[in-house]
Design a protein that fits this description.
By secondary structure, the chain is α+β, with helices and mostly antiparallel strands. It has a six-stranded antiparallel β-sheet with strand order 1-5-2-6-8-7. It has a two-stranded antiparallel sheet with strand order 3-4. Strands 9-10 form a two-stranded antiparallel sheet. Pfam families: ChaC.
Amino acid sequence: MTNDAPLWVLGYGSLIFKPPPHATHKIPGKISGFIRRFWQSSTDHRGTPESPGRVVTLIPYADIVKDHRFLESVHYYECDGVDKNIIGSDLQVWGCIYYIPAQHRKEVCSYLDVREQDGYTQHKVTFEVELDDEYFAQNPEIKEFVESHTIIDKHTGKNVIHSLVYIGTTSNESFIGPEHPAITAKVIRSNEGPSGSNLEYLKRLHGSLMDLDKSGNKRSHDRYLDELIQLVDEEDS
């Protein structure tokens, strides 16, 4: 991907509900080989240095299989409580990608480098578009755009796009590691930062994610986020 080419950016957290500037298209879908967790400390957006909040990051399969704590979380949330050997394709994270025209690439990258500065670094992922034939039939302009900007995966037959993504890796200073959901929920419930309350971040992410699956089959729901929502709501009752 050259510096004068259009830019694709993956959103799996706040980018889902707060898009980058100059995005002309938002396409729903998923990536494989990762899990999404609120295991990244936030001192600049949803918390402060004195009282850090929590935001999501992605944990790759290669890191998961090396740490029994990561595996325990995967077995509970992604495997419905079943302790089994997992492969990368067992892990899927729904999100969306944004198309940025070439003339805005440099500006948007600079914007994202600042927005994602608290421990996040740039990486590349393969994104699988999840729009069915019925949706394409009702939105032929989207079908044409997707087909002209993607390649077909020879194994799945799906439209895929190579995309930029910002990840707080397990080695970054703001990564807190596995945390009991009740503790995470308490932190989220009680913190606020320059970008707003931590609770707003969770609820907007959860709601926006549920809206991504245009088939109506709730494939984009995230069991881990469902539990966090339940826990913060219980604190209100």
